[in-house]
Amino acid sequence: LSASNPDLAAALLTGQILGDMREYGGRFASQIIAPIAANQKLPLRNLIDNNRTRGRLIELWHLVGGPDAIGYHDPRLASILHDVNREFFGEGLRITDMLIAEGRLSGKYTMTAAEYTTAYVKTLAPLERLRTTYLNIIIEQVTSEQNAALIKLLSAIAATTVILATLVGLVVVAQRYVFDPLLRARNEVICLAEDIPIERRAVQRHASELSSLFDAIDILRNNLTERASLTLADLVDQAWVM
Question: For residue 176, what are the CA distances in angstroms to 200, 209, 215?
């Protein structure tokens, strides 16, 4: 997704961080649950792993621990971020720290493994809601952007279609009312010059300039016809005289 759409890279990274927080949150409790279930002191290895996981959780929370850090001022996120800070980083870590302190002193815990699991899992719920809500918001935004892009594309296609249709219409009109009459006038002039008979054209409506052109051709035709008649009459008179 990042390769195909670089603009999503930051959002995808944030979503992955939120997913990692949920994973580390579950791992944080699992690293001390076995000694609690066995009523044993916490081994040093468990304490080291637990502290390492705590550090990762706090580091990730600093990256996405507020609307400005996540980058989206959505009231749904603001409310859930408050719940995460209050329930998980507040109550969840408090219960865990209490049991860790008891485990370092002795194997006697004030809560059983089942009680701790039930109480701790409740504090993980805001982390799950934060991840799911954030991804839903990203999907909504991407969908909205896609719909906006689709509307722009359809509008561009519609505008292009109208422009093409207009151009085609202009070409057809120009061909019918300008170019065809001009070609017809050219042919008529050539025929008159070469004394070729011309069929009378049907009366058509043309622009004023073209109408004047065809009127001039008609005048020229009439003049040539009249001149030919006069020439023929002169020839007949001369024949009678001879």
Answer: 19, 15, 19
